[in-house]
Amino acid sequence: MAQSAQLPKQKELFGHPVGLYILFFTEMWERFSYYGMRAILVLYLVAETASGNPGLGWTNAEALSLYGTYTMLVYVSSIPGGWIADKYLGQKRSVLYGGILLVAGHGILAVEQMWAFYTGLGLIIAGVGMLKPNISTMVGGLYKQGDIRRDKGFTIFYIGINLGAFISSLVVGTVGEVYGWHYGFGLAGIGMALGLLQYMLGQKYLKRVGNFLGQSTDPEEIAASKRPLSKIEKDRVIVLLVSFLMVIVFWGAFEQAGGLMNIYASEKTDRILSFSLPFIGNEVPASWFQSLNAMFIILLGTSVAGFWAKRKLKGKTATSLFKMAMGLIIMGSGFFFMTAASAQFQSNGESAMYWLVLAYLFHTIGELCLSPVALSYITKLAPLKYASIMMGVYFAMTGFGNKLAGLLGESASELGEFTIFTGIAVFCILFSLLVLIFRKKLEKLTHGAEDNEREMLEQEEYELADPDIN
User: Both 92 and 234 in a single domain?
Assistant: First the structure.
């Protein structure tokens, strides 16, 4: 992207700009709050009103319908959030205002009233819309055009996302299920407040990224904000829009984690251990399975990124579209383990926990091949003046995928989990193969956006091999 083509030298830590780690921890706490609330939302909705930890007593279909609509709106709101940043505020201030809205939203959810429940959800939707697309765009802005570290930077950033998700599923999930749903909602708000505080304290490392173009003094940025899109820019936007179809399919399948798979873990999985754990006894809380994805990302994130970097260095296919298609195949294959779990339940009346663990493992590897790569891809191809709104469109596609996930989850009550899980697996694999057939034609429309990455990677490997080169 043009805004990062001539970045001045920045202070670095572990080979990356210090600003990356400011954004890392901001996003970590934002995801702590979001995924913590997500881990208990459906469980709260379906919990009996007369139970020891009363919920709303909704049916599974009603809960999954709200879950799908809510998660869709969370991400669709990224379009107006990106537009506001590009048109009026800039990314940096948009992230700040989004954080404030999120603290307010999660705080209000702690109040045990229906008006507070819907108001809190509304504020969270607005807050994520302001924060999510803009903080991701800022990560890309830390690196100059063609910098091979960009994909690695997004992987580090992505680990931050999932570190927050991992901790929250365990902590917020346990507090919500054991001590009270609204205590869990309130704890999520405290996490977001910590993220907002450290973002404000780290502004000195973000001076050159996320600023409003309308106030820019950089001649290149001023010119880019005024001129119409070139033929190359238009072609690249077309490629991005096509890649977003994969995003919808991917998240439509993946987000069964917070809905159908969450309920499946609660109602049809044998969660009894042969030993007791502190505070919870020998029954694993259903919400804990939400932490598996994040745990696997933390453990495997750098390894997957390293695999693709080595593959590129050897001259093998490792373009963004190829990685994304392979990620969709791997993630889709993970649903075959849920097919096996459903078959076991039909035979024995319950299914083993290891099926969920294996499914989340494959989902995670697929996610690492697709999601951070897609974020980086957008910052490579999106026109400067539409940087945030294109990121917003990406998250909106994620939102549509979330709604699709809710619809698929609802249909399980009629079609059965076996049919839904198997159908998802087959469709994801077939759709990925279709993308691979047209991959080369699509990559021509990027006009070499990734062509110089191998050269930079070879230079990086040479410098690592000879530490005295500088």
Answer: no
Tokens 């990106």, residue located: 82
Element (H, E) at 16: strand 16-17
Show the domain range for 24.
11-211
Pair (153, 236) in one structural domain: no
Number of structural domains the chain divides into: 2
- C-alpha neighbours within 13 Å on the C-beta side of residue 419: 9
Q: How deeply is 140 buried, as exposed, middle or buried, from its count of CB atoms within 10 A (0-12, 13-18, 19+)?
A: buried
Does residue 3 lie in a domain region? no
64: CATH: 1.20.1250.20
d(CA 49, CA 132): 34
For the chain, the helix, strand and coil percentages under 3-state DSSP, each to the nearest 5 = 80, 5, 20
Do 248 and 334 share a domain, yes or no?
Answer: yes
Query: Per-residue pLDDT tens for 31-84?
Result: 899 888 888 898 899 888 888 888 899 988 888 888 888 988 888 898 899 889
What are residue 283's DSSP bridge partners? Answer: 272
Mean pLDDT, the chain, rounded, equals: 85
| Alpha helices per DSSP H over 110-180 | 114-141, 149-174
Where is 418: in which H helix or E strand?
Answer: helix 417-444
For residues 206 and 238, membership in a common domain is answered with no
- In a shared domain, residues 180 and 112: yes
Q: How confident is the model at residue 215 (pLDDT cuts 50, 70, 90)?
A: low
User: Are 186 and 317 part of one and the same domain?
Assistant: no
Are 182 and 243 within one domain?
no
Each residue of 254-306: pLDDT tens digit? Answer: 988 877 888 888 889 998 888 887 767 788 888 788 788 888 988 898 899 88
Crossing angle, helix 290-313 and helix 453-465, to 10 degrees? 90
Alpha-carbon distance values, 74 to 114, 121, 122, 253 (Å): 19, 9, 9, 17
> Could you read off the pLDDT of 333-369 as tens digits, one per residue?
999 999 999 999 999 988 999 999 999 999 999 999 9
pLDDT at 102 over 90: yes
CA-closest candidate to residue 136, choices 101, 95, 87: 95
| Whole-number pLDDT of residue 173 | 85
